[in-house]
Amino acid sequence: MYRKLLGLSAAETVIGGVLGTILGTAAWWITRKPLVAKTKRIQEFTEELRLSSEAIREARRVREFEAQAACSAEEKLKQQEG
Fold first, then answer.
1. pLDDT confidence of 10, banded at 50, 70, 90?
2. pLDDT tens digits, residue range 18-61?
3. Contacts with 23 (C-beta within 8 Å, 6 or more apart), sequence order
């Protein structure tokens, strides 16, 4: 349809289709690489957040354990004194 409107031969139409496909594929690859890099950075950031939240949880557990140990020590001292 477009071939007749533009006055192109069949060979010119085929060549145009091939070139269009090559250019389209190249454009896709060029735009894809930054997306892959961004996706990788997002995954790394997400992993860092997960590790940070795990470290925070572990620090809270340690603080709670230390507080319980301090309370137990105070109770033992009170029992020994009393």
1. confident
2. 999 999 998 888 888 777 788 888 899 999 999 999 999 999 99
3. none
Instruction: Calculate Rg over the CA atoms of the chain.
Output: 34
Query: How far is it, in rounded angstroms, from Cα 44 to Cα 52?
Result: 12
Q: Per the structure block, which two tokens stand in for 38?
A: 């961004």
> What is the residue-wise DSSP string for the chain?
-HHHHHT--HHHHHHHHHHHHHHHHHHHHHHHHHHHHHHHHHHHHHHHHHHHHHHHHHHHHHHHHHHHHHHHHHHHHHHHH-
Give CA–CA dist 70/76, Å, rounded: 10
